[in-house]
Design goal:
It is built from nine helices and nine strands. The chain is globular, with a radius of gyration of 18 Å.
């Protein structure tokens, strides 16, 4: 694995916490150089210093909002010459806000979810994939969700956004089938990260209740799946992985110990 990923350049969005941060650690441990992006620059800088010290790899932290297409283009155009050929793109940045019914979801929440989860992915696909096609190599890994395969009440907009990611992933795989590019989706179930804290807008009690009574997945579980997909031989393409905790069977089917 380390030989396959050694000296590859990996771009990870939403890398300041959770799955993105865990991916950064595992890729760095495997010898890859990293471009890590997020809105929280302080966290990125601390992570970059930690990774460079621990693994002796190159790490470029970039403060970036994935919703801003111009900023994405400008930031990637300004990368150092030795880091501007991206081998692996991990589209991880994403979020959910609220549990309102579709017709009661605040308009601003709708915009934030769709702009981040759908347009954010597209902004990086449109900027990075053309250079991958030109280089005749590359791997796009989109962090989707079980919500991209199933709908559930109280998640209408989030489910719609992740269904869009699923469709985009499948379509992109077809678009580049004549090339050597690979396109993968990783679709987790319940993962204990900041996800629910963001969903409930800082209400930690509600967020903690989401994972009560079962052993949820952790960020490292998903990062290991990402690394597995990225480290397959060139002729192997992982199309999608749905990953649940053992006590989860579907988006809304969960067994909780009393």
């Amino acid at each position: 694995m380390s030989t396959i990923l050694n000296d590859k350049t990996v771009l990870i969005t939403g890398a300041s916490a959770g799955i993105g941060e865990a991916c950064a650690h595992l890729f760095a441990k495997s010898g890859a150089n990293l471009i890590i992006t997020a809105r929280r620059l302080n966290r990125l800088q601390k992570l970059a210093e930690c990774l460079k010290k621990e693994y002796t790899v190159q790490v470029v932290p970039c403060e970036l909002d994935v919703r801003d297409s111009k900023a994405v283009e400008k930031t990637l155009a300004a990368l150092p010459a030795n880091m501007n050929k991206i081998d692996i793109l991990v589209n991880n940045a994403g979020l959910v806000l609220g549990v309102e019914k579709a017709h009661e979801t605040p308009g601003n929440d709708v915009d934030i979810m769709l702009d981040t989860n759908v347009k954010g992915v597209l902004n990086f696909v449109r900027t990075v994939v053309p250079q991958m096609v030109k280089a005749k190599s590359g791997h796009v890994i989109n962090i989707s969700s079980i919500a991209g395969h199933e709908a559930y009440p109280g998640g209408s907009v989030y489910c719609a956004s992740k269904h869009a990611v699923d469709a985009l992933t499948k379509s992109l795989r077809m678009d580049v089938v004549s090339t050597d590019l690979r396109v993968t989706a990783i679709s987790p179930g319940l993962v204990d990260t900041e996800f629910s804290t963001v969903r409930f807008k800082g209400d930690r009690e509600k967020a903690t209740a989401v994972y009560a009574g079962l052993e949820a997945l952790v960020a490292e579980d998903i990062a290991e799946a990402v690394l597995f997909a990225a480290s397959r031989p060139a002729h192997v393409q992982i199309a999608d992985m749905i990953i649940f905790p053992t006590k989860q069977a579907a988006a809304t089917v969960v067994h909780r110990d009393q």
